[in-house]
Amino acid sequence: MDSSIARQSITVPAMFFCVVGKEFTLLQGIAGLPAKKGEKKLNKKTLFLVEVAVFAALAFLLDLASNFIFSRIWPQGGSVSIAMVPIFLIAFRWGIKGGVLTGLLLGMLQMISNPSIYHPVQGFIDYFLAFSVVGVAGVFAGQVSNAYADDAKTKGMSYAIAGIFAGSLLRFLCHFYTGIVFFGTYAPKGQPVALYSLVYNGTYMLGSFVLSAVVVVMLYAAASRVLVRKAY
After folding, report:
1. pLDDT below 70 — which residues of the chain?
2. CATH number, domain at 122?
3. How many domains does the chain have?
4. Residue 103 domain boundaries
5. How far apart are the C-alpha atoms of 138 and 46, rounded to whole Å?
6. Cβ contacts of 116 within 8 Å, gap of 6 or more
7. 6-33 b/e with 16+ CB inside 10 Å = b?
8. What is the DSSP letter of 231?
9. Which of 24, 92, 156, 169 measures 20 to 30 Å from 226, CA to CA?
10. What is the four-CA torsion angle of 162, 163, 169, 174, rounded to 10 degrees?
11. What is the Cα–Cα distance from 32 to 125, expressed in whole angstroms?
12. How confident is the model over 210-219, as pLDDT tens digits?
């Protein structure tokens, strides 16, 4: 492996941990500022929008880094990355609405920067829908927050992994469908299109799920008080 790529693969996760910790600390400080009754709701809305925007941008940067490293392995798109981690963090913090909106913004950023679009429907599913449904992990937001707040770390970890699995599975199903319908011509001769799509999309999605689960669990183990603290 090229030394510059090796250094990037090491520094990106380290930078991610640093940024997440500092970002949440700063935002929590803002949230803790005294506010009048009428301003409290506004502060909550503002904080929600700021967190969603910041973590969507962070997810986009993580995705760019992973695409740079793995683009030769999955030439039609896709890579093993921790780009979904910011979506999961917001989903567990704000629920489904936060997760879906963060995923949607990530899909929009990807669509603008360097899309692989072969058909409008495929583009919508692979970018807007696939990353939006990752935010469905927020269905476990209450369980994750309550478990870690009660110091039931094993329980919280189980709920977090369940949410990460649900979001990853839904995203995989989107890519699996477009792989069959729009990328079937790339399948090797004699190989069923469904099998090709399963292997192509399943390999990087499985890796992304495992990596995302490990990173999220590590973040909650290190800074659960910051991550589960109420943002309002």
Report:
1. 1-42, 67-78, 229-232
2. 1.10.1760.20
3. 1
4. 3-228
5. 20
6. 76, 77, 126
7. eeeeeebbeebeebbeebbeebbeebee
8. -
9. 169
10. 170
11. 39
12. 999 999 999 9
